[in-house]
Design a protein that fits this description.
The protein has no helices and 10 strands. By secondary structure, it is an all-beta fold. The protein has a 6-stranded mixed sheet with strand order 2-10-9-4-5-6, with no helix packed on it. It is globular.
C-alpha cells in the first residue's frame, strides 16, 4: 500500500487549498478512505471519511461546512477541498485506508497571516 499526499502549503486565513492523495497497491474502489490531521503534541484527528463509492461522507465538527472530501476511483486518488481556512486548521494532513494500517508522509498545511 502506498499513499502520497500533496497540495499543502502556506496560506492566509480565508484561503482555500485542495489536497490530493495518490494511492497504489490495493483495490482503491473497495475501501472507505479518510483524511486525518495532526498537530505536534496532539493525537491524530479524523477530519473526513468517504465511502468506497463516494456516495457517503462524514466530517469532523471542526471542518463541517468548510471541507469537502471526494474521490476519483478511475485514478485511485482521494481529495480534500478546504475552504475558509482558519489558523486552527494548521496541521500535517494524512490520508488513510480504513481498515489498513498504512500512512503516507503527510502534507503540511499552514494557515497564517
Amino acid at each position: 500500500v502506498q499513499l502520497v499526499e500533496s497540495g499543502g502549503g502556506l496560506v492566509q486565513p480565508g484561503d482555500s487549498l485542495r489536497l490530493s492523495c495518490a494511492t497504489s497497491g490495493f483495490s482503491f474502489s473497495s475501501y472507505w478512505m479518510r483524511w486525518f490531521r495532526q498537530v505536534p503534541g496532539k493525537e491524530r484527528e479524523l477530519v473526513a471519511s468517504i465511502s468506497n463509492a463516494g456516495d457517503n461522507t462524514n466530517y469532523g465538527n471542526s471542518v463541517k461546512g468548510r471541507f469537502t472530501i471526494s474521490r476519483d476511483n478511475t485514478k485511485n486518488t482521494l481529495f480534500l477541498q478546504m475552504n475558509s481556512l482558519k489558523p486552527e486548521d494548521t496541521a500535517v494532513y494524512y490520508c488513510n485506508v480504513a481498515g489498513l494500517g498504512s500512512w503516507g508522509q503527510g502534507t503540511q498545511v499552514t494557515v497564517s497571516s
